Each structure stands twice: as C-alpha cells, then as structure tokens.
From TrEMBL:
GO molecular function, one term: cytoskeletal motor activity
All copies of domain Flagellar motor switch protein FliN-like C-terminal, residue ranges: 98-168
One GO cellular component, as annotated: plasma membrane
Taxonomic classification: Bacteria, Pseudomonadati, Pseudomonadota, Gammaproteobacteria, Oceanospirillales
Cell membrane among keywords: yes
Descriptive protein name: Flagellar motor switch protein FliN
UniProt membrane topology term: Peripheral membrane protein
Skewed-composition ranges (Low complexity): 60-75
C-alpha cells in the first residue's frame, strides 16, 4: 500500500500497526513517543488566552462605570419622511397633489413595422405601409414610452379617441416589450 501524497514510498503493515498503536495511546491519555508541542508554540492557544484576558478587562471596566440610561435611537428618515400608518384610508388624504400637475405624454400605437433605408427612400405620397398590428386588434397605450394599457379606437364628435379595455400588469409589460 502507498501513501497518496508519496506514491514512490511503500508503507508496510508494521508501519500501520505502529501508527494505530500511537493513536490508541493518544486517545487513552498516554503521551506518544513524540511529545506534543508546548502551549507556547501553539499560536491558537496564545490567541485564545489573549482574547480571554481582553474580555475580562472589558468586563471589569464596564462594572466600574455607573450605568447611564440609554437614549432610544431615532431614525433620521422620520425627520424627512412622514411614517406610514395603518389607517391611511381614514386619516389625511395622501399628498398626491404634488404630482398632479406633472405632464406626461400619452401615445396610442396603431402598429409597428421595420423598413430598410431603400424602402424608406422609395416612399411617396399615396404609399401604403403595412403594419404588424391586425385590424380589430387592441391598440397599445403608452405613457412616456412605457406600455400601460390597451384599448379600442372610438370616434367622438369627428375626433378619434381610445376606450381603455385592459390595464397591463408588470409581467405582461415585459412580455409585450419583446415583440
């Protein structure tokens, strides 16, 4: 049999027997033929002893100082943001008035297509461009370029309008972006 770390060296059964008897002596508390390293040579033992002495010193210093009442920590965010409460529906109305006057761009997309530069240059008055959208298919409603709903085209007093038929969920938005 060979040692996997030293494949060229053969280990005899006598060597195994000696190693096993040495292990048995160590487990039974007898010292083996070679002495164990002293505690001074063991860096772990020295580190553990040092740590214990530091902890004892800190404990004695804490015992010598009188206890002061701890001041509760207040998050800085409470100074900036008002905390949310459970009864938001019955309390003050939410401060949405701040954002009500922000303009957004609503776009209704009839369909899309891809053209080459050559096809684009060949366009003239009266040219027809075929779109991917089908007739009767709901139109995409985009807010600032993001798909948020779908609807159908309606005519109101000789003007086009759109009736919302479906609000898009976040997972559907991701699926629609891939087309």
């Amino acid at each position: 049999m060979t040692d996997p770390n030293k494949p060229d060296q053969n280990i005899s059964d006598d060597d195994w027997a000696a190693a096993m008897s040495e292990q048995d002596e160590t487990e039974q508390g007898n010292t083996p033929s070679e002495e164990a390293p002293l505690e001074e040579d063991d860096p772990w033992a020295a580190a553990m002893a040092e740590q214990q002495s530091v902890e004892e010193e800190q404990a004695s210093q804490e015992a010598a100082q009188p206890e002061q009442p701890a001041t509760p920590a207040k998050p800085a965010s409470e100074d900036i943001f008002r905390p949310l409460s459970q009864d938001t529906g019955t309390g003050q109305p939410r401060d949405l008035e701040m954002i009500m006057d922000i303009p957004v761009k609503l776009t209704v997309e009839l369909g899309r297509t891809k053209l080459t530069i050559k096809q684009l240059l060949e366009l003239a008055q009266g040219s027809v461009i075929e779109l991917e959208g089908l007739a009767g298919e709901p139109m995409d409603i985009l807010i600032n370029g993001y798909l948020v709903a779908q609807g159908e085209v309606v005519v109101v007093d000789d003007k086009y309008g759109i009736r919302i038929t479906e609000i898009i969920t976040p997972s559907e938005r991701i699926h629609k972006l891939n087309r």
